[in-house]
Structure formats: structure tokens, C-alpha cells
Amino acid sequence: MFVAEGDFLHADLDSFYASVAQRDDPALRGKPVAVGGGIVLAASYEAKAMGVRTAMSGRIARRLCPGLIEVPATFTAYVEASRAVFEIFRDITPIVEGVSIDEAFLDVGGLRRVSGSPSTVGTTLRRRVKEEVGLPISVGIAGSKFLAKVASAASKPDGLLSVPVGQELAFLHPLPIEALWGVGKVTGGKLHERGIGTVGALAALDEQALIDIVGPGSGRHLHALAHGRDPRRVETRSRRRSIGAQRAIGRGRHTGAELDATLVSLVDKVTRRLRSGERIGRTFVLRLRFDDMTRVTRSRTVRSATAGTDAWLVAGRALLEEAMPMIADRGVTLVGISITGLDEAGDEQLELPFDTDSPTAQRRPDARLDGALDAVRDRFGSSAVTRAVLLGRAEGFSTPQLPDQP
Questions:
Q1: What is the pLDDT of residues 43-87, one digit of tens each?
Q2: Structural domain includes residue 403
Q3: Is 91 annotated as a binding residue?
Q4: Residue 12, annotated ligand binder?
Q5: Minimal CA–CA distance to 263: which of 233, 282, 287?
């Protein structure tokens, strides 16, 4: 019997960082692996089966899983694997929307005559990623992006699940409310207090009653999702408005020099990615996570958009200096940065060079130096040239965002 399928695929690499580690080191395959140091940044399914979870402290993870193997993160390996997987996505269909470094939406509605049904396309995609990149990937298929993402989560690990057209609510309503985008700890707590534990129970509520519980924005959003309504299309033309990275540095006291070295390393990585994508930015954002797991964000906007490393180091160091009293009082376990307000490099508004200290007046020499360093690193590796402040320090872990799409 023919079963109608939706046009949307959500493809999500399984335990991406841990899977890359197991792929690259055969001795780790089939064993419980955690990526990261003081904080678990990713866990293999063998580790997850023992209760290890992302963002868990290494101490707790080792107690839950005595045989846990902890490995450092490798930024370059993740980016290379992501690019290889996205090349497969775009070879299958030109309509690809990257969500993060390890997941994307694909519209395969126009491929039926050429490539077969969406399930056939999904099976081909999973086989190619496994054979060509060596990684497991889960795929969800549905008539909307939201349901495709829920289906891919339900298919894990390393599976494929298609939600037939006309049976969306039968699939969705038995699921816990946490399956809905926007239901986190706070919203979920409010709903559970009222005995609402499944999507079906939430869908039974009048929209106004839901608004009274969680507010107008969330209420309307969750009411629509609970009824399977998500009109969004796969967007292929939008480029990121921000690029960033973050590093978990573990618990314990960290000196100003250690934090500065972490900041320098992150700025180097992010500005290099800016230049490789021919982008410039205007605002620097510093994110900190404290020992008690609370977070704070600070930002600074520069007068002239730039991709220059030195300009962003000045902005980042100023923000870090302002945050030092909080760090001294509360400790810090994660440092993250992002550069936002991105434009194409050719869209930069030039200034008359009346002020010799202005970013415009200083731009060309810095750009030549940054370009030369980028060329050396591209040819000989990211560690071929480094800053003196980083000598003798481990690279640590940076969480990359999805590389800019062409």
C-alpha cells in the first residue's frame, strides 16, 4: 500500500564529536568515550547508556562510568568532517539549510522521479555518509521541518524514521512535551505543575489557556506545534549573522593570564573563519559560564566593521577585564565569544582617513599581516604560526558553529 511521505529531511550526525573520535581511533570503537576535560562536551552512546550526559562534570561522569575514556576535542577534525558531510547533502539536493555543524534540513520534494521516495533518499544519504565520511547519521522525514527534527531524534541512534502524511498527530501527541521546540526547564515545569506531560495533553488546551500559563509568544508557538503546524520552508540563501566558538576550561581557579590565552586562541580561530568567508563584523560578544552553571553575556560594538584579529582582541580583552571581578567571585568554567552583525567584506563603509588611529587608517597593514598568517596556516597547519602567549599551552576545546555556506 502506498504511504505518502513528507518532503523534509532532518539529518543529524550521532554524538558527533565522540563519533569522530571513535572513527579516528579504532581502539575507542564500542567503548564509552567522553570528549572534553572538566566538562563532558559529548558522549558516545556506550557512555550515554551508563548515564553520562553532555554538560556533566567529568567527576560525575567517571563515577557513573568507571571505564570512561576521556579524549580531548579536535576542532579541525570536526570542521573537516562537517564539510565532507555537507558536500554529500548538496550533492543529493541543492536545497539544504544548515542548522549547526552537525545537522541540516533538506528539501527533497523535487527528487521523486530522479532519486525515488524521501525514504529512499534518506537511506542513500545515510549510506553515503557512513561510507564516505565514516560517521553514523540519523534521518527524520516529515511534512514539516519541526516534525522532521522530532523524527530524527526518535530514530537515534543511527536510524531513519518517516512520519507518514496524515498521521502526524498520531506520532506527535504521545510524546513528552519536551519534544516541542521552546519547552525547556522553566516552561516544562509550569506545564507539569498543571498535569500536562504529553504533547496531546497540551494540544487539548485552548490556545488562550496555554497563553495564560506560558505567555503570549510561547503560548501561540506551542499551540501551533502541538497541532503539527509549521509553515517554514528550507532556507538556502541566508548567511549567518554571527560566527563564534567557545571553550570549556573546567572548574578551579584560573589566572588572568590563562583566561587571556583562552580568549586569544578563540579570537584567532573566529577571525580566521571571518576572513575565509569574506565577512566582516561589528559587535563582539563575550559569554561566560560560572561554577554554579549560571551565565552572563557582555558585548561591545566597534565603530568600523572589521575582520582584523587585533581589533577584536582589543574589544574582547576590554570585556574580559570588566568581567574579572565576577570571575574572581564566582569562578568560570567556560569562555565563549562571537562576532555578530556580519556583512560581506565588500559592503564595508569606508571612512575618510582623517584620524590616523581610526580602524580604517589602520586596516590595510593589519589585513596584509592577517592574510599572510592565514596563508601560512592554510598551507602548513594551524599550529605553524602561533602567538607567544599560546606557546606551551594545549589547544583545548572550541565548539565551532557551522562554517558559512557559500
A1: 999 999 999 998 888 899 999 999 999 999 887 888 899 989 999
A2: no
A3: no
A4: yes
A5: 287
